[in-house]
Amino acid sequence: MRVTVKEGGGTIDDEETQPLGLRFFRVDPNRGFFLNGVSYPLHGVSRHQDRIDMGWAIGSAQQTQDFDLIMEMGCTGVRLSHYQHAQEFYDLCDSGGLVVWAESCMVNRVTDSKAFDDAAERQLRELIKQSYNHPSICFWSLFNELGVDKKWTAAQKAAQSAHQIELVTQLNQIAHQLDPTRLTTAATNHDNPTDAINLITDVIGFNRYYGWYSKTPAAWPSALDAIHAALPNRGIAISEYGAGANVYQHQLDPKQPKTTGQWHPEEWQCIVHEQAYAAMKKRPYLWGTFVWTMFDFASANRHEGDQPGINDKGLVTYDRRIKKDAFFFYKANWSEEPVIYITDRRFTPRPVDDEPVKIYSNCDSVELTVNGKSLGTKTSDDHIFIWPAAKLALGENELMATGVRGGKHFSDSCRIVYDPKAIIPMVTTEPATEPATDAGR
Fold it and tell me: Is residue 16 part of a domain?
């Protein structure tokens, strides 16, 4: 669409051309997200736009690479947290057909001052006005994880909560005044789903970390149903979930690690995502599910997972060079392209010669061979193929996975060294809660 401003005599004073997208959408509390009248489950990731050794000073090549990686995985939605992202990324989502949750930058705390309120209002207005014409945007998000300091007195907590509710209510009204066509939302970490702060926006997302900061991965089904039972007439999403993973740390039969510790084995991240997503995809009342997070990112007060200053919950490393195993779990679930991937390939050398082999694939069947010997062909209903015992020879071993899909063959291979003298690392498995003041969960 082209808009031209002319003077009386026909002189063009200004002209602007923008792409135009037409779509309609809604959220049903029991059936999820609908796009153009058709059920369209939103599954995707949250994204921070920083890069190792670059910060936010990234260019078109980096914006495009991030978008391409998200699309490669088969995402249908993306949460751009916790601030307004570069207009170029919204452009990519417009042209690529990726539904956007766009977020203003009110995170964790609200300062008791008019200056804070004015800044929050101004930034929301700028987000909406600058990004209004992007058809990919379906949601304006007003905040992320507003809470109170546990050390405050009861009176201080009550005053802070009241101020938060008042401010969010005001921001919600502003968003509807500026744009009555889109839904407002937010990302909350309140334990009680019916807390007043969760009831202001049109729909709401919950940040939950079962299997990482609390409970175990087995808690997901009942926890999701409890939220829905508490808010049966309200559209709910999971706006954050995940676990940390260092691609150089591996463990046989991993247990839930100490989250603030130095040990974040990649295998545990896979277990968390496998069980979390299995529960989510069976519950159509969720209008969206967003992994935290697509890429590792900077988080200054962290010293965990053997990477100081890094949040390692990404499905891709901070430098975008390594796709973690969990990336391929989601690609096998979401992508229409054939996927076959042998997990734990970076776990080499290994100290034992007989252990399971796990493969992520969307093929109809998968055969595993070790050093040319077939261990059989398997099928799977959840894109996870497991051989309980794969005997390795001393030294280097070649693993080959061959999948069949639609009569065509696809394969993946890797080499694993068995060394009985390989060191098994000392690990701490006691779960721990992350500091409440950390903005980068």
Answer: no
